[in-house]
């Protein structure tokens, strides 16, 4: 019998893109828990935000935050990871990406290259973050506690030399569902492989299912044995996420409703490529 681990994006995938609700995913979450299938959030959200949502969703095995920049693994589910970590609130938290001065220099270069048109989350007040994202004030405060990944909006094209300029600092640009992201030489896929290896060492061989809705999730889906794309609210699929991805399964609905159907089919052995 195939034993699965589910690695999933949050916003627009397991969480509704507008309301952040997840009630429609309840049956699949319950079935995963019944079968002992780990569900691991893999998101651009901060450690504090992701911990909040993991608690709300009843997921306590592990989570990946800030686009793979860090991973937190349960002290009850895992032995000590073979990398430096800090213990916080029942998790061993492993930093995996550059932060601090290199990220700040990258922000400076993006501002300069775009004539100041790039607006970073760190520029915004908590009230403005809540207004732009629909987060509650409490969650907006958690969203500002960033270390490894800086979201930003920009309404002008990037100069061609900017990508190479950032790469010289060990930094990269990726497009998410709502924002661009500046981050180090890490992504959701690389950290998924790492955490999946730790899970397999603790639980035995696992097959990985990855679910996401935007180009930022492409590395996660590429790292998975079964890749599942969640459509946008209008029913379309992100072409950068889906194009050329072999064996892709397309969920039948957006957000948690599509997540629910896709995961129930996966756990029942019915998931089949639709790309």
**What characterizes the major β-sheet?**
5 strands, parallel
Q: What CATH architecture of the largest domain would you give?
A: 3-Layer(aba) Sandwich
CATH topology-level name of the largest domain: Rossmann fold
Helix-strand topology string = EHEHEEEEHEHHEHEEHEHEHEH
Number of domains: 2
User: Structural class, from secondary structure content?
Assistant: alpha/beta
Q: Give the overall pLDDT as a whole number.
A: 93
Q: Helicity, in percent?
A: 25-40%
Q: Over the alpha carbons, how many angstroms does the gyration radius reach?
A: 18 Å
Number of strands: 13
CATH class of the largest domain: Alpha Beta
Q: How far is the first residue's CA from the last residue's CA? A: 25 Å
Which regions have little confidence, pLDDT < 50, spanning 5+ residues?
none
State the fourth-level CATH superfamily of the largest domain: HAD superfamily/HAD-like
Strand composition percent: 15-25%
Q: In one word, what is the shape? A: globular
Helical stretch count?
Answer: 10
Sheet with the most strands: spatial strand order: 2-1-11-12-13
């Amino acid at each position: 019998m195939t034993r699965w681990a589910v690695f999933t994006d949050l916003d627009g995938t397991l969480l509704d893109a507008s309301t952040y609700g997840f009630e429609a995913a309840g049956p699949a979450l319950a079935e995963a828990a019944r079968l002992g299938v780990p569900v691991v959030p893999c998101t651009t959200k901060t450690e504090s935000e992701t911990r909040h949502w993991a608690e709300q969703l009843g997921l306590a095995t592990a989570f990946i935050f800030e686009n793979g920049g860090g991973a937190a693994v349960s002290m009850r589910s895992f032995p000590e990871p073979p990398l430096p970590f800090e213990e916080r609130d029942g998790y061993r938290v492993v930093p995996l990406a550059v932060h601090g001065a290199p990220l700040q220099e990258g922000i400076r270069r993006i501002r300069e290259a775009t004539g100041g048109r790039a607006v970073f989350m760190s520029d915004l007040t908590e009230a403005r973050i809540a207004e732009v994202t629909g987060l509650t004030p409490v969650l907006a405060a958690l969203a500002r506690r960033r270390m490894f990944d800086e979201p930003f909006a920009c309404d002008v094209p990037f100069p061609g030399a900017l990508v190479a300029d950032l790469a010289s600092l060990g930094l990269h640009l990726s497009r998410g569902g709502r924002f661009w992201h500046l981050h180090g030489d890490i992504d959701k896929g690389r950290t998924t492989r790492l955490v999946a290896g730790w899970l397999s060492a603790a639980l035995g061989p696992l097959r990985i299912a990855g679910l996401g809705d935007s180009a930022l999730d492409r590395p996660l889906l590429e790292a998975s044995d079964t890749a599942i794309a969640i459509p946008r609210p209008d029913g379309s699929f992100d072409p950068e996420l889906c194009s050329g991805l072999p064996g892709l399964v397309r969920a039948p609905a957006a957000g948690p409703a599509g997540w629910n159907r896709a995961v129930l089919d996966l756990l029942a052995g019915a998931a089949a490529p639709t790309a």
